[in-house]
Amino acid sequence: MKRGYTGSPSNSGGPPKSRLKHSAEGDADYSEDVVQKVANHYSARTNQSLAERESSPIIHLKKLNNWIKSVLIQLYTRRGDAVLDLACGKGGDLIKWDKAKVGYYVGVDIAEGSIEDCRTRYNGDANHHQNRKKFSFPARLICGDCYEIRLDKVLADDAPFDVCSCQFALHYSWSTEKRARRALANVSALLRPGGTFIGTMPDANVIIRKLRASDGLSFGNSVYWIRFDEEYTEKSFSSSSPFGIKYQFHLEDAVDCPEWIVPVDVFKALADEYDLELVFAKNAHDFVHEYLKKPEYVDLMRRLGALGDDRDKSTLSPDEWEVAYLYLAFALRKRGQPERGQVNGRRDKAKMHISKDDIMTI
Ligand SMILES: C[S@@+](CC[C@H](N)C(=O)[O-])C[C@H]1O[C@@H](n2cnc3c(N)ncnc32)[C@H](O)[C@@H]1O
User: Fold this and answer.
1) Pocket perturbation via mutation, ligand 1, pick of 109, 151, 165 by most ligand atoms within 8 A of CB
2) Per the database record, which ranges form the MRNA cap 0 methyltransferase domain (predicted)?
3) What is the structure's pLDDT at 250?
4) pTM for this prediction
5) What is the whole-number distance in angstroms between the Cα of residue 215 and the centre of ligand 1?
6) Which of 109, 195, 243, 264 has the smallest CB count inside 10 Å?
7) Among 46, 93, 168, which residue has the most ligand 1 atoms within 8 Å of its CB, making it the best to mutate?
8) Residue 72 has pLDDT above 90, yes or no
9) Which domains, ranges and CATH numbers included, belong to the chain?
10) Whose CA is closest to 246, among 18, 29, 17, 40?
């Protein structure tokens, strides 16, 4: 459901012709403009009612994505961990963190509307999908651009974190090299040695393969489309400019904004510069196949209902499964050994009930 004006028309009938002319890569005004577009897009999307959510054309994809995120969280989180959720959105992962019994949570997002929804979800004020007991961990919410601002300064009292998570959002940092570096520098500075950075983002290899296989500059199916601008008519991408490769992404009932290609080898190399060693980066299809071999995750899949369950005969459609293929999951480890007897931050700004005034805007 839309909260209001999003700045770009919704186009469910396929991609419109490209209207944008190429803007200089790294141009500050251009970059700010598209960053704002992304923020406005997400800010304008309100929480859905249970009925709205269940009637979504991508409901099974949403459930599958929740399963992938749950598996990542369960694999890399231990009881009592301090968690930094970059681009936390409306707090759709709060329940997952609660199930992992984390001890402390900080969520940061650029979209004011999403942070407000996250706040009400954390407080249990909103009529969300489950009427549930309060979350068991104290939390802090921050509204700001985590690919621009030095979060190590903002969160000096909260660090170090055991786990940093950035779900379906790291690609928004890839508009310029400076932003991509800031994203990774923030993660590295805030994670303890041995801590883990987990996430999901578009799989550049798949997107570029699909672009090259398509007749024009766009491709998609009944639930999504991707369109590149005319500057990419050659469909070739120079390895010397791996940032700012923009495309427009439309996913029914979810996304309609500019996104950026994150070449996986560049991601790995850049992360390494910030002492973040790649544990794995795996396409979502491979991730699903691998973890569906484990009974506990089969059971979780059944409970989440991504592939349908005994009562519900509907299941993930081939078009939704194709969208899943556009993404990968990753884990990186911060180099170094955990320090014995490491002192945690003061964390005295965290609350068990967050008021509007408690939200820090940076
Ligand atoms: C697809 S949503 C994912 C939300 C959440 N991580 C999840 O998995 O449910 C992408 C999120 O990235 C956020 N985002 C995009 N650019 C950002 C930035 N520069 N700083 C902080 N958040 C950003 C958006 O506001 C949005 O909430």
Assistant:
1) 109
2) 56-335
3) 96
4) 0.91
5) 31
6) 264
7) 168
8) yes
9) 50-203+262-361 (3.40.50.150)
10) 18
